[in-house]
User: What shape does this take?
Amino acid sequence: MSEGWKSDKRWSDRFLPQIKRELGAFLIVEPSVEEDQMRNTDLIVLKMDSVRTACRIRKFSFYEHPQYRNEFTIRSGRPSGNETELTKIIAGWGDFMFYGFSDAEETALIAFRIISLTAFRLWFTRSLVTNKGIMPGSEKKNHDGSSSFIAFDIEALPQDCIAVESGFAATPPPQFCRHTKATFLP
Assistant: This one.
């Protein structure tokens, strides 16, 4: 494995405790009154099978620019030819992507989205068919030449792609996020 990947992983892993808290709040919910009264249930874990979540954290400098704040990126190419995140996602791997932005001090997350990769895959495939094989999003290359990625505009995605979002100017507080039910879980 490359030193660049290891360094990037060490940097993003510092946010794992906060990511786990946010994902826990999303995946563990309060049941309906009927469920509580009839089945002795105070909390429900939305799925007991493996729920695979990709995590991507971007630096604060990206959050400062509205263009980057309203997109998410997925690695789509490597000079080595190694399999990329996009290939794995389209092949069916991953249930969610946690996509967040760090604060300026790089000690905490200030905004994040949890993206349903099931809904994303459906949208992506439909886009390819509708656009006669033209890939949705904008392909870009990292400045260091280590990889290329595709940037997807959040506004271009159907609403069911964004399961939760928090910390964005036009976003309601977390308890009023876009989706609170697990109807879209794989």
Q: What stands out?
A: The mean pLDDT is 85. The beta strands are 28-29, 44-45, 53-58, 71-77, 96-102, 109-116, 138-141, 148-153, 162-166. The chain has seven helices and nine strands. The two ends are 31 Å apart (CA to CA).
